[in-house]
Each structure stands twice: as structure tokens, then as C-alpha cells.
Amino acid sequence: MEVVDIFELLDSTAGKKDKIAILKEHESYLLKQVLSFTYDDLKQYYVTTHTVKKIERSEDFSTDNGDEHWYGFLALLTACDEHDISGNSAVEKIHTYFSLMPAIYEKWMRRVLDRHLNIGITAKSINKAYKKDKKDSNLIYAFEVQLADKWPKFEKKIIATHKLVVVEPKLDGFRCIAMIQDGKCSLMSRNGKSITRNFVDTVCKELESLNLDDCILDGELMGRTFKETTQQVHKKTNPDVTHIKFHVFDYLSFEDWKNQETKTTCQESRESIEDMCFEARTSFIKTVPRWIVNPLEIQKYHDIFVQDGYEGVMVKTLNTKYKFGRGSNVLKHKAFFDTDVLCIGFEEGTGKHKGVLGAVIVSYNDVRVNVGSGFSDRQREEIWNNQQGYRMKMCEVRYQEETDDGSLRFPTFRAWRPDKD
Questions:
Q1: What is the pLDDT of residues 227-257, one digit of tens each?
Q2: Which domains are present in the chain?
């Protein structure tokens, strides 16, 4: 069965188990290649279908030679990924290729280019279909970063088992992963979405100038405020990122990142970062400061960092290794917590806010929560007058603690998160 026919069959099939069965039944090298080019987060094409005009057809082409159509397209994507073609040249070549394709192929190739087939399968289900044994490596690389758990959950255990720990200030920034490959730098959000475009001439240019071996730098982009940083990261026209710095707090070899198995410890990672001498060699790259302290001093350092304008304190043990996903390898302790929630509704304001937004209604673990603070007057007017544009969008909310009924105490709007929609 042709790849496009398999995709059409998957699109018309309900149920995850049935879709996985179809993937197994029609397993082929080409199908797995197309799926890999679609869902592998390590591949970056720097072109989307928004920039490639749809083909106007007076007549359609034959669907014969389907395999050749796909191999030619994958060769184009490889050229984009390896920076052999880019910009307008890449857009024109892909547009020309689409013009020579049958309409059904253009349809599915566009979805591959946009990295989402929209047929109810994910990298996880693809890996499940094709992984024969637990020891087998996954077909699709799934982007994942280290996420911190909460310090109070593990405080007693850490104090009992460690005489010394590492502390760093908790930054109030936008999580960023810098991937250095073959001298080229690309930036990714914590969910694997490319945010390179606005930083080509600042962060990326400086990292490329350092002639680093292939590696991963984990950190946060920090501007004057969190809201402003988030806006400039996602701004499509005339972004102003000259005040945004990349603050690095972790390092991994590219091999460890790809295999999602880290060999270096927290202390060894730090030594690698310090060897890069960012402060002496760059203007847009900074090293997050750290101290080695007694774990009984965590609260003291938390209070010092908060007083200095940080969110709180991050805690790591000296021999811990980078863990993909959330865990106790790194812990956070702060007065307030942040969460990503879905906007499901709106309430009109009262008093000076009558006629504009009073609060957005969000879903937090299926509990409806009203978030009424944190908005500028301009935002209140914009959101209220364009509710459909914000309904079912993800936003970040800061809160002090969960209440007994599962709601949030003192919720404050932070920013819309288009990278998580």
C-alpha cells in the first residue's frame, strides 16, 4: 500500500489501537522514514506551509511512482535540515516540487513539512508500533527537557543524605534549549518548537562564533520582564531582542541528548559551561551563578534570591545527572508557582473594568478558576473584543498554593503560551 493510502486509512480509522495495528501491518522503510521526518524533533526545516503558496491546478498528475515522489521530497527536507538550502531558495524549491506532485501528495507533504499529520497518531504511538523489544531504540526522537520537582517534597531526604548541595537562583524567563550541530545553532522552546528566527543575529550568532563541539545548552531567555520576553520570542515582525540574554544552567553532549541518557554529573556539566567563558567572549550569553552550600541553608538562599528579584531557588546534588522529564534530580523552591492552563471562558469586569475583560476562566485539573489580575488595560480590551481568538488557548498563571477544593489561591495571569497550544 502506498504511503498516502496508509495516511488516508489512518485518517479514517478511529481508535489508537486500530491505528497502531495499521502501522504494524504496513511497516516499510519508506513509511518509517516519512514518519521520522514528520515527528523527529531533532530535524529542523526552517520552512512552513505558511510560506509555500498552494498550487493552483487545472489538471492533476498521475499517482504512479509514489515512492520516488516521497524520496525526492525527503531529499529536499534533508537539504533544509542541513542548511544546504534555506530562505527564499528553500521555499521556491519546495513550491516547485509541489507543483509537480499529484494533489493528494501535495496534501500529505504539506502536513509533513508542518510536522503534524493530524491523523490521531503521535511520536509515542509510532514508537510503540515499531519497537520490537525494550532494548530497541525509538524510531522517533521525542523532545523532552529536565523539569524540576518541588523542594518541600524531598527536603527531609536531601538533608538526611547530603552534606552539600548546589543552589542557583530561579530565573523568571523563557525556557530555551540551544542545539549546536556542525557549527550551526538552533533554539527550541521546552516543547521542541523552533524559536531560532528572532535570535539569529544575537544568541545564535555568538554561540556559532565559539566553535563549540556538537552539544546542548539548557537555560532561559531573560529580558526586562517575563511578559515582554515572551512577546518578543514569538513576535513575527520587527522583534526587539537586543536586551534579551541567554542564561545557561546546564550542558549535555549531543550524543547524550539524542540517546536521552546522560553520562555527565551536575558538577561535570558545570565545569564544561565554565570552560566556555561566556562572559568574557559574548554579550548575549550568560552563565547562571551557583553556590555549594549546606542543605539546611536552602531557605536562607531562597530569601536572598527573592530579595534580589529572582523567583526562588533551584537545588541540585553534586552527582545528579540530567533527567529527561520531571523528577527529583533538580528541585525548585519558591514563594509562588506557575502552571499552564486552558482558557475556557471570560467574565466582564465591573467598575472601571465594565465593558472589558474582568477575568478569564481557566481549567485547572478540571476545576474552573477565575483569573482576574495580571492584565494591562490594553489586554483587557483586546481579549474582551476578540474572545474567539483566545478561547481554548493556553496561558501561564502564577499562584501561591492550591486550595482544599482544588482551586488556586491568588491566581495571576502571566502570559499567553502559543508554544504550548
A1: 889 999 999 889 999 999 999 999 999 989 8
A2: 3-130 (no CATH), 146-334 (3.30.470.30), 337-420 (2.40.50.140)
